[in-house]
Each structure stands twice: as C-alpha cells, then as structure tokens.
C-alpha cells in the first residue's frame, strides 16, 4: 500500500518540468524589465537580470502617454472594492439560499444561474448606455458598479454553505437568542472563510486583469486602469519593450503578493472543498 503514495522519478521529472514551464515566462519578464530594449532581439536570449531596472521604472512612471501610476491606483481601488463587495454579498446570499427558507428561493437561484450564461460582451452596450445616462462615463464608479455582485460568487457560496454550515448549529444559535445577522457574522462567516478566500482571490485577479469593460467606459487617457496603461505603452509604431515588460512586471506584483499572503488559506479552502466533495 505504501507504494501507492510514493512518487516515481518520472513523476518528479514531470512536476519539475511543469514548474519550470510555468515560472520561466514570469522570470524572463522580470529579466527583460531589468535590461534595455535590445534584449528582446539577442540570441541566445539573456537569462540573468540586468542593471537597468531602476532606469526603466523611472521612465515608465514619467511616461505621459500611459499614466501608469494613476492606472495602478485606479486598479487597486476598483479591484479591492469589487472583491470586498462580491465576497460580502455572495456569502450573504449563499447563506440565505442554502439555509433560509422563503418563497421563490429556487426561482431566484435559477435566475442568478441564468445570468452566468450571458456572455459579458452582450451586456457592454446596454451597460454603457446606462452608465452614460447616470453621468458616470469616464469615472471609476462606472467600472465598479456592474461588478459588485456576481452570479458565480452567489452560486459558489450557496454550494459551499450547504455543506460547511451545520443546520443544527444555526438552530442552536437561534435558541440562544441570536438573530439572523448575528448568526451570519458569528457562525456562517467563519465557516465560509476558506471558500471566501478562494472567491476573493479569483475576483481580485479577474477585476485587476479586466480590459474590455474599462476600455469601453473609460475614455479619458488620464484616468486609466493598469490594463489600459499597458495598452498605451504598446501602442504606436515604435514600442519600447523594456517599458512594456517593466509595466507588466509591476502590474503582476500585486497578484503575486495577494497569492503569497493568502495562499495557505486559499489552498486549504480548495483542499477542504475537495475532501467534502
């Protein structure tokens, strides 16, 4: 039986190869970000960092076409606000659909699931018209408002709450005099924390990397998100690839930081869900 849990050398080799193939593009991005633009055309390509990272960062933030610092700040505001909102409303709605009884709950859940079947591209024109009617065009609220709640988040939390939250524990809390709000905060939220961490990471990454909707609704070049700033860097006849890679590397750092800070809880949530499944 012990042989079933022992990895073979072939398994280790495959894992090492997969790790190298996954990590090397990110590493080489940082290598090019620390060198001049001619590093892209060198054969063989450089694999060690250079000494131009500070100069590239200075030129990047001084570039008046990209407004990269404003893009970083705007993306941080948008991604953080959307993530907090999605996690809060998804856990609240997931708890309600999984553990509370009310008329029309199944029909409402079907409507929420149906919203996941509508491609994002189909909603851009009516959403843009709505934001324009509310005088929110070219402003960050226009990027934030349509993403405050997601059908995927509600469905995910509903499925997880059905397994992780004990009905007996909720009934015991009601006997002790707890209202629904207190049960949600003191009983449901701790139980949903692993799944909420996974949802928060996915939401933050999706919002941070979103390009299409900000590109449609933010027409002011001085008020971009980080993805629009990266697009501005890659526009034009001449592309300064060192700036493009430097901007991409800096834009990747928040995602890596979030994963490092919350990786253990996120992986624990995935594994816990797999065991319960």
Strand content: under 5%
Question: Helical stretch count?
Answer: 12
Structural class: mainly alpha
Report, as a whole number of angstroms, the end-to-end distance: 24 Å
Helix share, percent: over 70%
Mean pLDDT: 88
Shape: globular
Largest sheet report: none
Radius of gyration: 23 Å
H/E series:
HHHHHHHHHHHH
* Low confidence ranges: 273-277
Q: Give the total of beta strands.
A: 0
Protein model, in words:
This protein is mainly α and 277 residues long. The protein has 12 helices and no strands. It is globular, with a radius of gyration of 23 Å. The two termini are 24 Å apart. The model is unreliable at 273-277 (pLDDT under 50).
List the topology elements:
Elements: H1 9-33, H2 53-62, H3 68-99, H4 105-115, H5 124-133, H6 140-144, H7 151-164, H8 167-175, H9 180-209, H10 212-217, H11 226-234, H12 241-276
Helix pairs in contact: 1-12, 2-12, 3-7, 3-9, 3-11, 4-7, 7-9, 9-12, 11-12
